[in-house]
């Protein structure tokens, strides 16, 4: 059974205690966006065979949302991190680089990634 | 040319120690170019090739498959065939498919063991009663034969069912008498044999590794068995559609999740219909071998492991034991998962793509087997003529235009 550590309360919870919340880090299309942008926001998904970033909620525990990085093939969990961020933390990305050389997810994969300075500015 | 299968052929072969049977389909090496290349030799891909040949006279076709024929979801489903959908485009497509199943064994000269034993979808809440009554009325208008039946009729149709369950008593059901099951492998094998007879090449163990494009058109696919040129490309790969679309240079509104099924040890005949219980989430039928074939729910998160989450087995079995108390001591023989491709509105995609001569057939989610012949019929028409009345509402553009075919709640399908 899939087990994830909730970064909010520190409990390592079974899948039965958690509610999956779909793909992580999807930015809502802004007011005035065209149909294509709304389509991408509502229906466009990475659906990777490999490393994936997801939202989860510790529904039967502390009730709070968090993020997880997981492999959709082997079910390996690379780590969890708080919901209050626009992108995964650097140490987690480096951990995934080491475990899965050549991985890719949007622009986050090894070799595709830029420094995170601009993300910090957005925050 | 293959010999026809018949009672006479069996008698003839019996007299010569069965030495005259030939391989069901040829396994040639790929040619350098075909008019049409279909990726994916599951039921839908093979059906597409079959109708391309039968209805549109296009026989210079290759069906390429990364594993073995029918080894994906075609061989992993619970073989249920029904067409009791709420929305008109769905009912038209699935009823076309169901009606093709009626004569498929004769059309293919291959026994697909279509068994119109009837499918009963249980109503176990007031909302479900209202929903299925509405579906029955819609089906009457669509020309799909269904009927809403009361609890007493449910008990007559399926005596082993406990209709007075403590949590969810059976309040009625949506009964489709000409729905049923078929032998899933035979459907794939039958289509493969017919395609091979028309001179098409079915190439197994041939994985697509890239799609070559020139000026917005596909010119060839790279495979583990070399480059294969194509006039038109059809992608029919279910759970891996997103991967192929990425190679062809466009995105799909699809997420892939495992859906599980399991079968019990064989027992004496005890249930001659298919029962789906969507509130408690489980469905069951009895195979000709006597095994109880059980289907459950999908994982709530993306996955490509053909196994699924254990908790869903527990949920499914718990629900079914409550509904069918006699199965509580059955031992389960096998459990497996298939990767199903889910769209936002839970309806399939039969569509042109941003790449001019590339077409996609996917998004069948948890209910693709029933659609196999109809899906192939419509997709072949779309590929051959550029348009198909059955496929038209299922285009990719519906997600941008907000023109959904919303079956995620309408049909009460076990999603």
Helix and strand layout, with pairings?
The complex is a heterodimer of chains A (123) and B (415).
Chain A: E1 3-5, E2 12-14, E3 19-23, H1 35-42, E4 51-57, E5 65-71, E6 77-82, H2 90-99, H3 117-122
Chain B: H1 7-15, E1 33-39, H2 43-56, E2 61-64, E3 80-81, H3 88-108, E4 119-123, H4 126-142, E5 147-149, H5 151-157, E6 172-176, E7 180-181, H6 184-197, E8 201-203, E9 208-214, E10 217-223, E11 226-235, H7 241-248, E12 254-266, E13 274-277, E14 282-286, E15 291-298, H8 310-323, E16 332-343, E17 349-352, E18 358-362, H9 372-385, H10 398-401
Helix pairs in contact in B: 2-6, 2-9, 3-9
Structure, explained:
The complex is a heterodimer of chains A (123) and B (415). With 123 residues, chain A is an alpha+beta fold. Chain A has a single domain (3-122), classed as Folate-binding superfamily (Folate-binding fold). In chain A, 20% of the residues lie in helices and 25% in strands. The longest helix of chain A has 10 residues, at 90-99. Chain B has 415 residues and is an alpha/beta fold. Chain B folds into 2 domains: 24-79 and 184-253 and 345-401, FAD/NAD(P)-binding domain (3-Layer(bba) Sandwich), CATH 3.50.50.60; 117-179 and 255-343, D-Amino Acid Oxidase, subunit A, domain 2 (D-Amino Acid Oxidase, Chain A, domain 2, 2-Layer Sandwich). Chain B has 10 helices and 18 strands. Chain B has helices at residues 7-15, 43-56, 88-108, 126-142, 151-157, 184-197, 241-248, 310-323, 372-385, 398-401; strands at 33-39, 61-64, 80-81, 119-123, 147-149, 172-176, 180-181, 201-203, 208-214, 217-223, 226-235, 254-266, 274-277, 282-286, 291-298, 332-343, 349-352, 358-362. In chain B, strands 1, 2, 8, 9, 10, 11, 17 and 18 form an 8-stranded mixed sheet that branches. In chain B, strands 5-6-4-13-14-15-12-16 form an 8-stranded mixed sheet. The longest helix of chain B has 21 residues, at 88-108. In chain B, 52% of the residues are buried. Mean pLDDT of chain B is 94; it is low at 410-415. The chains are: A alpha+beta (123), B alpha/beta (415). Chain A: GO terms for molecular function: sarcosine oxidase activity. Chain A: This is Sarcosine oxidase subunit delta.
């Amino acid at each position: 059974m899939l087990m994830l550590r909730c970064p909010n309360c520190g409990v390592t919870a079974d899948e039965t205690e958690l509610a999956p919340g779909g793909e992580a880090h999807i930015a809502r299309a802004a007011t005035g966006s065209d149909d294509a942008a709304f389509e991408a926001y509502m229906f466009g998904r990475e659906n990777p065979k490999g490393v994936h970033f997801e939202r989860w909620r510790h529904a039967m525990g502390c009730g709070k949302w968090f993020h997880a990085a997981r492999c959709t093939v082997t079910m390996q969990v690379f780590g969890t991190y708080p919901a209050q961020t626009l992108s995964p933390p650097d140490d987690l990305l480096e951990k995934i680089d080491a475990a899965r050389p050549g991985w890719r997810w949007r622009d986050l994969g090894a070799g595709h990634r830029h420094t995170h300075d601009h993300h910090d500015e957005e925050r | 040319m293959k010999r026809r299968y018949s009672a006479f052929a069996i008698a003839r072969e019996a007299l010569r120690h069965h030495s005259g049977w030939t391989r069901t389909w040829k396994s040639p090496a790929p040619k350098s170019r075909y008019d049409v290349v279909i990726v994916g030799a599951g039921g839908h891909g093979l059906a597409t090739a079959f109708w391309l040949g039968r209805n549109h006279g296009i026989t210079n076709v290759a069906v390429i498959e990364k594993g073995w024929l029918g080894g994906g979801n075609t061989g992993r489903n619970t073989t249920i065939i029904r067409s009791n959908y709420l929305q008109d485009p769905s009912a038209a497509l699935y009823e076309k498919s169901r009606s093709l199943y009626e004569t498929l064994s004769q059309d293919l000269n291959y026994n697909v063991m279509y068994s119109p034993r009837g499918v009963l979808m249980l109503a176990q809440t007031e909302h479900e009663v209202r929903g299925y009554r509405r579906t029955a009325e819609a089906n009457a208008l669509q020309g799909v034969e269904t009927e809403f039946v009361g609890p007493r009729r449910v008990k007559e149709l399926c005596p082993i069912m406990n209709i007075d369950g403590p949590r969810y008593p059976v309040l009625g059901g949506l009964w489709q008498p000409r729905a049923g099951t078929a032998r899933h492998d035979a459907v794939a094998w039958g289509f493969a044999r017919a395609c091979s007879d028309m001179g098409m090449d079915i190439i197994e163990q041939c994985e697509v590794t890239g799609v070559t494009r020139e000026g917005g058109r596909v010119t060839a696919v790279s495979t583990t068995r070399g480059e294969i040129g194509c006039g038109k490309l059809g992608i029919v790969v279910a759970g891996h559609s997103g991967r192929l679309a990425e190679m062809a240079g466009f995105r799909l509104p699809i997420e892939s999740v495992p859906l599980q099924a399991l079968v019990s040890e064989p027992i004496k005949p005890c249930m001659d219909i298919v029962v789906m219980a969507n509130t408690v989430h489980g469905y069951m039928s009895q195979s000709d071998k006597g095994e109880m074939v059980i289907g459950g729910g999908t994982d709530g998160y993306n996955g490509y492991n053909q196994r699924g989450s254990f908790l869903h087995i527990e949920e499914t079995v718990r629900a079914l034991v409550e509904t069918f108390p006699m199965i509580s001591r059955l031992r389960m023989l096998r459990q497996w998962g298939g990767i199903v491709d889910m769209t936002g509105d839970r309806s399939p995609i039969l569509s042109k793509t941003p790449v001019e001569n590339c077409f996609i057939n996917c998004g069948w989610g948890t209910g693709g087997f029933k659609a196999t012949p109809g899906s192939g019929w419509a997709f072949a028409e779309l590929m051959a003529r550029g348009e198909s009345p059955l496929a038209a509402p299922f285009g990719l553009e519906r997600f941008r235009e907000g023109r959904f075919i919303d079956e995620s709640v309408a049909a009460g399908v076990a999603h």
